[in-house]
Amino acid sequence: MSIALERYSDAHRRRAALTHRLRRARLRVLASAVLGATLVAGCGDQGMTAPSAGDSLKPSLRVVGAVATDLGTLGGAGSDAVAINAKSQVVGESATTSGNVHAFLWQRGHGIQDLGTLGGGFSQARGINSKGQVVGLSTTISGQQHAFLWQSGQGMKDLGTLRGEFSLANGINDKGQVVGYSGSSGQEHAFLWQSGRGMQDLGTLGGGASQANGINAEGQVVGTSSTTSGDSHAFLWQSGQAMQDLGTLGGAISIASGINTKGQVVGLSETTGGQDHAFLWQRGAGMQDLGTLAGGGSDAVAINASGEVVGFSSTTSEPYHAFLWQPGRGMQALATLGGAFSQALGINTKGQVVGVSTTTTTSRQLHAVLWQ
User: Within a domain: residue 149?
Assistant: First the structure.
């Protein structure tokens, strides 16, 4: 089984469908979406839930000594955190008291703030820069799904689309450059949005679809694209240069999720044996397999300037566990909020990590978590 999980929004379904067309579904998980489709469908506040789990974290896994802090919710039963900046500001999405899901901003001493929507009932935050600018996706008053840029005192701005009715923003750097993907179903393309210039189509690796997942301070963009052969490969895009294929770990697919200031790229690739493994790509060194916690698959989602990588890994018999990978130390598990399921989805320059975890061994509820 691929390590992709079911998502609860149409945007996530579009993304899963895109990956299937690019070859095999996987894509980095927003763990809050696991088995939560009924929540967005308006069936009430049933919470964000994780797959059924057995025992809690196996004692045989090396666990990092970071403390896990529950960041709470917007009044509903579930939440997840996907990104954290250098000021320790955290963004994600949460169920509200009304049963909708809204993007949030969490700040120490201020708690969790609802960022609202573009007029519809749903929004999710996907990235934040050091200036506190937030990007993501929201439904509009007409029901379309559009990328947004949120700024304190200005609220949420609709970034429009390349074509069609859909766009999603995945990342933003300190220059205010935004990346994501947009277009009609089946023909979404990666974009770079800049103030005063709008959306720029970044093209593909020869296939019909692409999506941008991350951007660094230099404006280097990473993501995944279909190739002429129909496979899905991780890419690196730079202004003035053609989109670069980063290859794979021997299999047919790879997906880049994050890039740091040094140009180090992380993501997931299929191996020659058909497994999904986290990778670290560096210029001149190529793609390195980061392994797993204890068998199964793994996915690297984010990397900081120190080369510390976070993501999640499954085992042959256990659910997904958040991990921290460090040069010279390898992959170590992060503790949960009490349950068996966790995923690390963002890391900042201080080494603070955010993600999602089940709260108890008997509950499948998911809450945003900060590890530090």
Answer: yes
